[in-house]
Amino acid sequence: MLIIHALFELTALRSVYRAFGLALVIFFAAVCWLAARYFDQMPTGESLAEYANGFALGTGTLLTLVIAQQHPLRAPARLFWWAVALGFAVVAANEVFNIFDRAERAWGDDDYSDLIILCLTPIGLYLACILESAPRLAVTAMKFGFLFQCISDLIDLCDGDGYLYLYRVPLIDRALMDVVTDISELIFIETYLFGLGCLLLQIVVRRLRLQGEAP
Amino acid sequence: MTIIFWRRFLTSGLCVLALPVFLGLLIGRLLFFGMLRMIEAARQAVLEIRDLPMSRQSQVPLLPFWAAWIMAIALLAASFAGSIAVVAQTRDWSLQDQIITRGAVAGLALLAFYLAYRLALYGTAALQRALAQNLALLIAFELAELRSEAEARALVLTSARPSLSPAFRLPNFYDEREDIVKLLGRPTEQALERLLHSLENFNNIAADDLDQHAEARLRHHLSAVYDCLNHAMRSIDPFCQRAV
User: Fold this and answer.
1) ipTM of the prediction
2) Facing residue for A176 by CB, picked from B12, B21, B117
3) Best mutation target, B4, B12, B22, to test chain A (most A CBs within 10 A)
4) CB environment B55-89: b (16+ within 10 A), e (fewer)
């Protein structure tokens, strides 16, 4: 049996990725509770869920940098992961400090950047799976992540905010719609994080085997 | 307040789902089968968690891995929280003060991120070493037991009653060769495979009726067991020496 396919049979690794998944679920529940608890105390246009998204994206930056470090210097895979880490960092900074909005240009609207990210994501996911020979669990997590991202972007188009929106949901005020959008974003970001965690575990074991086979 | 939020949250969720755009998605093939697969995956995960053998899991020294990663995440969270708090507090300050304060915080946040990155790298390397070391130590214990058994047999063979030499028991790693290849590499697995063959050869001779040449053949095979044992110990030793 190939090690790539047998990776998740290792008991110790199973305990690691299950604990990681559980931590992500607990984090999501905590963010939902905190967003509800402090809903009326946050200024308009800001929510705790938005900060949580920034933090989750920052964790994604950390994970991708660690994955990049597992590859030789100047290898295409390492350059790819550096580019992904840079993308994560920019989006994290934008999520927390609204950098694009501060540019006060039409292109700075979040709806545009979300659409560009949505178009780039499948390319990045495909390259990641090809470069790392991703295990089944990571591929599944990424597929679900992309599905959640599509749904989240559709919700974003209905928040009545920005230049791009299709429909404004009646009966819902702007602040609540923002929180709903941010929480839906957190779902797909966490799903991608889980996929990245699984990829990292696979790379760890693969490198170990290569070291073991070295003379 | 919380109840009001959830009521409004649910209402908003229902309104969003009732939109024509979402209705199309909901009845679409992709989402339908996606939900089915999610339910199946969740069910499978619950079943697997119930079957998890905790005794084997606890053998792996994963503490450095968890400690390093938790500290890295905590540093990252602290840098985020600090940056957000400072930006919020300095909103009404003069531009010059804002630039100085926020610049200093940005520098500190970058330093914290770098430390978190180093910690994450350390944690990842610790996991790698822990996985290999765990298996290597188990095998090393087995090999030490085999060595003491071989020494006992050597003593018996030098005595006047060689027929008392019983067969070797086969070590526990006999069934774990796939894990050995995964974690310790093919050369180690081959060294252990040779050891297993030599033990089986010795056992076959010991099981036969002992004639006048049997003692010489047992000695010969016992020395082969020693050679294989030494070779296996040399192969496993680098993995046991790695500090976690």
Assistant:
1) 0.84
2) B12
3) B12
4) eeeeebbbebbeebbebbbebbeebbeebbebbee
